[in-house]
Design goal:
The chain is α/β, with parallel strands linked by helices. The protein is built from 17 helices and 9 strands.
């Protein structure tokens, strides 16, 4: 004979089921949304109560409903990730994004020599043999990929660097294996535990960029950056480290800066509005060797940890940006200000537009570097954040996804 406590649990769980049944019977979209919001506010409390009582009384029937719902959510999240090429166990898919006109080097049709070297070959060259600019930046272009076999989509931007870099530059392609060995050899011992705890490959690739520039210096460019002209750095007698500004059209500029200011509020530092640096990208960075900025970057990365929440092992993109990506670099630059040595490369000359924006009649290629924004790194992230946003009407996305 069940006691009154069992009856109460059954009634509460039945009430939850009744609420769900009523929702499905609504035909009006506005009523459905209202009921859905009500459900998202109330169901969490009811489910938690049911879970607690069911665990204490070992009632499997009470647990069946919530467990089934969670299973369905995870199944469709994984299915969507696989469909969009975001499933972490699938081969990376690089979209065809090169809608903008190519550089003059590629348009001319002149044969381009294949003169790049590997990371292993670079380490066999004495540092004294590497040419440097006036401000001490080595004339090395670093790029990375999973192996030394590039995808077809990489060929155009990769070849542009082979064509536009002067002969006294080195062009280096690092594989993931070379990058991992390099980080384990040269990064500070205090950083290795954080590096090994990262859940996503791209987090370790991001980390490699910072360690690499700290050790060797030079220019780092993502594989979807196309060289439009031999790089001429601004204020070369003053600047040491150059970081490229994030692209954003006028429609998203306000939201971008609002989000960046929210990030800076995590730290006990305030800058006047006219001294606030812009949000940065980590797809194009230039530096001399042994510059303090990169040690500071790794220190902040250690403080931020491999992830903010355990759910970010599943959710991907936001965790990557916060821990090793554009948010990390932007925060380090903010904390380093004011500094005359850290300079921003304006997006008009060092980024440009991409995708459909290139079809504008007034479009012009940037002066030095064109970032096509393929975002191939998102192929290693799951689609769970999108489902959390949809299912909870964006009420809990920040908690789970950052």
């Amino acid at each position: 004979m069940p006691d009154s406590g069992d009856t109460g649990v059954t009634q509460r769980c039945s009430a939850s089921s009744t609420t769900s049944a009523k929702m499905t019977s609504l035909t009006s979209l506005s009523k459905l949304k209202t009921q859905y919001i009500f459900w998202s506010d109330r169901m969490a409390v009811r489910t938690a109560f049911c879970f607690g009582n069911c665990f204490s009384r070992r009632s499997r029937a009470c647990l069946a409903g919530p467990v089934a719902v969670i299973t369905v959510i995870l199944f469709f999240a994984g299915l969507r990730g696989w469909w969009l090429g975001l499933w972490p166990f699938g081969a990376p898919k690089m979209p065809s994004v090169y809608l903008c006109p190519p550089s003059d080097f590629l348009r001319s049709g002149t044969p381009i020599p294949d003169r790049y070297i590997t990371g292993t070959e670079l380490q066999q060259i004495p540092r004294s043999k590497i040419n440097v600019m006036e401000n001490g930046v080595p004339k090395i272009l670093h790029q990375t990929w999973s192996s030394h076999q590039l995808l077809a989509e990489h060929q155009r931007p990769f070849a542009s660097w082979e064509a536009c870099l002067p002969d006294d530059w080195l062009h280096v392609l690092w594989s993931d294996t070379e990058a991992q060995t390099f980080v384990e050899t040269y990064s500070p011992r205090s950083y290795l535990s954080t590096y090994k705890a990262y859940a996503h490959v791209i987090q370790r690739v991001d980390s490699f960029r910072y360690v690499l520039l700290g050790v060797y210096g030079g220019m780092y460019a993502d594989l979807d950056n196309e060289c439009m002209a031999p790089p001429v750095l601004p204020n070369i007698h003053k600047c040491k480290v150059y970081l490229a500004e994030q692209f954003c059209n006028e429609a998203c500029r306000k939201d971008q800066h609002t989000q960046f200011k929210a990030l800076t509020q995590e730290y006990d530092k305030v800058l006047p509005e006219n001294q606030m640096p812009p949000p940065l990208q980590n797809s194009l960075m230039i530096s001399p060797a042994d510059h303090w900025f990169w040690n500071k970057t790794l220190d902040v990365a250690i403080a931020r940890g491999p992830m903010a929440h355990m759910w970010q092992r599943w959710t991907g993109i936001q965790a990557i940006q916060h821990t090793t990506g554009i948010d990390l670099l932007s925060i380090v630059n903010f904390l380093a200000q004011p500094s005359a040595e850290i300079c921003t490369l304006p997006k008009e000359d060092w980024h440009g537009l991409y995708g459909e924006d290139c079809k504008s009649p007034s479009y012009q290629n940037p002066k030095y570097v064109h970032h096509h924004g393929s975002h191939v790194w998102t192929s290693s992230s799951s689609g769970l954040c999108w489902w959390i946003k949809v299912i909870t009407l964006n009420k809990f996305t920040h908690f789970f996804c950052g």
